[in-house]
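Below sits the subject:

***
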Amino acid sequence: MLRDDGDADIYLPPNEMRAVLHKDRVKARVVRQDRRGRPEGRVVEIVERPEQPIIGRLLHEGGVWLVAPEDKRYGQDVLIPKGATGPAKVGQVVVVQLTEPPALFGQPVGRVKEVLGEIDDPGMEIEIAVRKYGVPHEFSEACLAQAKALPDKVRATDKRGRVDLTDIPLVTIDGEDARDFDDAVYCEPAKVGRTKGWRLLVAIADVSHYVQTGSDIDIDAYDRATSVYFPRRVIPMLPEKLSNGLCSLNPEVDRLCMVCDMLVTSAGEIYAYQFYPAVMFSHARFTYTEVAAILANTRGPEAAKRKERVKDLLNLHDVYRALLKARSVRGAVDFETTETQIICDDAGRIEKIVPRVRTEAHRLIEEAMLAANVCSADFIAEGKHPGLFRVHEGPTPEKKEILRNYLKAMGVGMSISDDPRPAEFQAVAEATKDRPDAQQIHTMLLRSMQQAIYTPINSGHFGLAYEAYTHFTSPIRRYPDLLVHRVIKAILGKTKYQLPMLPTPGEAHAKLAKRLASRVKVPSAKPQKASVAPSKEVMAWEAAGLHCSANERRADEASRDVEAWLKCKYMREHLGEEYGGVVTAATTFGIFVTLDAMYVEGLVHITELGGEYFKFDEARQELRGERTGIRYAIGSRVRVQVSRVDLDGRKIDFRLVREGEELTSRALKDKGLPSPTGVPAKAADKRSGRKKSEASRSAQSPIQALRSAVKKATSKMKGKGRTARR
């Protein structure tokens, strides 16, 4: 059970779980410490039982209809009365509405509310995920009607009071599969003070012109808070007419935009900036691959096709390199990590998993967007207007101590101070980049970081080394960016943007106000320095920030769940096959290994590591055999066989092959001990005293472990407001 105050989780034994469900809010009393030292509780009262549909497969066993929940956090099957199955057939995936809650001596009872289809239907994993995580996936009729009434193109009346930039060759640079285009860029040499520099324009789709506060479109957008990206499908924040049409900066059409117009020095410092509404005309739609090819060879075939734009791209590349210098001087964290992309066939099955290659084009756009976001935060702060900042705080004292111990144990020879700066992390990364265990060290540096949140209380962005930072550049897919646009417009117009904190005239306004007001009781994301209580206005902004942060986590969880499902289905076809891999995490119950060729992660349980007692070294983040001294740490290379795939649990199990015996023999030889004649099938995990079934429950896949961590962090965020992402 997750506590509201953020203290240690409370363990509820099985008999206490019989009368409660996952997501219930309860009042509990700690009665003792269990065998593993966890506080054990007893449920005193069920405070709130949210209406929550349960997704699972319909089964018919012994004449009884029941649904086995797909989410294993629901510990009980749901009984379905004979007449409540609807049109569902045995084995189909259904959505169940509870009609009777669970009791100490009775299972929950429900009725089939919706039939999703067969478990192997294409896209079923997405249908399950959006319902499992409560992702809004259908726009309201009022929202769609309002979107339909919008014009198909920019009208003459919409251009009034805007700067005409249609003759400026702004271009978009995105991925090959992008359908909505938030941002366009242009750069030209300019004199900055007495030296040479650049004028950099970042034009962002002006969603706020079409989506008015409290409108039906706005209510749906606020509920979603973000677009959710799945393999082969996107659940957008805005209706398609806006996201892919009227707001999207499509090539060779007029579009309304908000512009951040900057002067950048040769040292990469932003000398001056201004914001203004404009109308633009995208002169080209580039892909990252295309721009990277042009920058690599300005006389190549890609450059020949776009020769009128090559000079502009080179200017963009020049200002990017200057901004990169400033990033280095600032000491911002910049670790290289491998992101993957799932390639599916027409039936929705994985064809392959490939790494996403970050090119100069990706970095170029990233630096331009960072510059515009920093200017936005500065503009809001200077305007003394409340708004949402993107805050990333430094590591917690606990994480600092773990990292220090780890760096010391690994003999790095460098550490971090009591009040560390981002440059210290970057310095460690640079100093260790050529070590064989560089990946292991960099992973630990990343894990010591916190997640970012949206909050009106500016505490700076630790990872990027900015005193103030916000999100301005993606209003088509992120609600905080839309709010930032509204605030910037208010400052420009010398007015004030007011969140609808209290019911105001108009039903639509009242709906949004009610949803914001329902979250106002949540404590501040960071304690106020002043002793006075925050105003209703600040509390409303805090509530909006917490809502957007929590829904960002929800979108991440849903996306990871779908990817885990697809990977499990993919690996079912490779049972028994052997692959090389690298250890990506070590725990008390085993090691997680990511396969080289497939970028899929699975667990090698401690019972598969050999016939000896393994001890988990927290400082080194490794498992070490007491007899042989064999070590399994982050970055260790192993060879594994795919032994088991649990689709419902989203878990993949591996077992060590050959390499395990070879490593054991080598470790024994190093210690001057005779090599073993064989590796016993059973490991002696005496310290934990786990049964295999209990260990299996603990042995979550990394994606599940991360999901649990994010869930816990989101829960803590509701009490403390601490979690984050760039």
